[in-house]
Write a structure and sequence with these properties.
This protein has about 190 residues and is α/β, with parallel strands linked by helices. The protein is about 30% helix and about 25% strand. β5 and β6 form a beta hairpin. α4 crosses α5. It is globular and about 50 Å long.
Length: about 190
């Protein structure tokens, strides 16, 4: 089976390839000739995932799946959420986003947060959504060199290391994206 993953984010592609069985071949946007940036103009994580999947299916005709993810911080009323990748504005910059988040949390006691991923699958003319959420907390400084996005400031419940301190395999097995991908694979089987 071949499925397009509506992303050119090499980190996300690697995480997903680790989780997907060998009988499912994942193609990136680049591999199908889609080099344009797909607009992420929706107000929710769910709607952005749908926008991206529909874009690929309608423009290129492939069965595909797309994800959108966000970090939702309790003390910030769910921010940065759908705006996680561009929280500090354009151009997207992980360090600037984390710095703004840490600054906004400086005087807050509650550091609870969750990472949320929604995958939209367009397959054989039908659409399905799969959600993965992992709860945790924001720490006060960036730790770790693995991962991307807000990984250096997020520690999942039950863990002592940030996502950026975990190997890609460890993170993929417990992360919000990993949870959503497992639901996608179960559906496809």
């Amino acid at each position: 089976m071949k499925l397009v993953f509506a992303s050119n984010n090499k980190n996300k592609i690697r995480e997903i390839q680790i989780l997907v069985p060998n009988d499912i071949q994942i193609l990136s946007l680049e591999e199908i000739g889609c080099v344009e940036e797909i607009p992420e103009t929706a107000d929710t994580i769910e709607e952005n995932a749908i926008l991206k999947a529909n874009y690929v299916t309608q423009k290129y005709g492939y069965d595909c799946f797309a994800d959108d993810s966000g970090l939702e911080v309790d003390a910030l009323n769910g921010e940065p959420g759908v705006f996680s990748a561009r929280y500090a504005g354009e151009p997207k910059n992980d360090d600037n986003n984390m710095d703004k988040l840490l600054s906004n949390l400086k005087d807050k006691i509650n550091k609870k947060a969750n990472f949320k991923t929604v995958i939209c699958l367009n397959y054989k003319g039908n659409q399905q959504l799969f959600t993965g959420i992992i709860n945790g907390k924001i720490i006060e400084e960036k730790i770790g060199n693995n991962g991307f996005g807000n990984d250096p400031i997020f520690v999942a419940d039950g863990y002592l290391k940030t996502f950026a301190e975990l190997s890609i395999e460890e993170k993929a097995s417990i992360s919000h994206r990993g949870i959503a991908v497992k639901k996608l694979i179960d559906f496809l089987k």
